[in-house]
Structure formats: structure tokens, C-alpha cells
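Journal club side-thread
Mid-discussion, someone asked how the predicted structure for our own chain would compare to the paper's figures. Pasting it here so we can look after the session.
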Amino acid sequence: PATETFTASISKADPAPDTYTLTGYTETYDGAKHGITVTGTEPGDTILYSTDGVTYSGIAPELFVGSATVSVKISRPNYNDWTGSADINITPKQLTVSGTAVANKTYDGTTGAVITLGAVDGVIDTDAVTVTPSGAFPSANVGDYQVAVTYALSGAEAQYYLAPADDTCAASITAANITGVTLTGYAGTYDGDEHGITVNGTE
């Protein structure tokens, strides 16, 4: 009998929908980078990542703080590419402070305040973060006040934190002693005119 030749093709198979699993990451900053997790892969699979859905790379995106949607493309020989996405959401860490104090002062005509920072809680040991308080008396006059204190952050890792909430501290301005005033008496022989003391240095 004659030999016949037939043309046939084998098409790529689609991976089962549950073959791969993408798990996002949603937490507060903890001092380390984090990204999504891909499970269900097999040896020989190629995994590519993208944060814009256009440009893919073999490097998995990771963040200290921030948000990103990570698209994943997995290639396996003889299978169609599999695609999916998951999100990274890492929020800055909130700092707190306790025991901040504003020093009482004697009236000096200004609202300037001397502030002593309390104990700061929440900074990860290896991070360089400085908390700086600022504030002023609401008036320069003598009285008892609640001084509003705000906090600012600086340092290499300051961007990964939220400054402590605004604070209020009780402090007083007390009356100052008058200085620079001199009294000069009068001593002399009667000359027909009235004489008295002289006061110098008043304002």
C-alpha cells in the first residue's frame, strides 16, 4: 500500500487557573523591603514582573513604603503564558512621644519657648530618624499657657515614618524684675528753688 503523509500540530496548553497563586502584601513599614509572593511554579518556569503592565523584568519589585500593582507573566515550555497581578501596600510607621515639656520663663517680651523632647517610641533601631519639637507661647505677656508643640522628622529613613501627633504642654511666663533704673538724690544749700530726686532708666 502507498504511504500517506499527514500534517498535524500540537498547540500549547493553557495552565490550569489554580496552578499559580499571587499573594499581595499589606502592612506597616517594619524596616525591610517587601513584595508580592508567587507560589505554584515549577522548575523551568520563567517569571517576569512589571509595575506598569508594559515593561517586564525578572527582578521582583519590592518596597519599603508605598503602593504598587505588580503584574506577573509566567512562561512554561509548551504552555501559553499565564498572567495575573497583586498589590503591595506598605504604610509609614506612626511614631509617638511622651513626656515633652516646655520650660517656664521670665517675661522677656518674646513668645519664644524652650522645649525638651520627651521619649520617642516606634523608631526601628537601625534607622536614622531625628524628631524635633517646635512651638511658641501664644502671648508674650505674663500668664499661664497651654503651648502647642508640633514635631518634624529628619534623617535618612524619616520618609518611612509619620511624625508624632501634635502636643500641648503647660507653661508659664512670670513677671520680670525692672532693671537699669537709678535714683539720684539732691543735696545742697537752700537756693530759693524746690529740688527733688532724679529717676533715670525708665521706659
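Post-session note: DSSP finds no helices and 18 strands in the chain.
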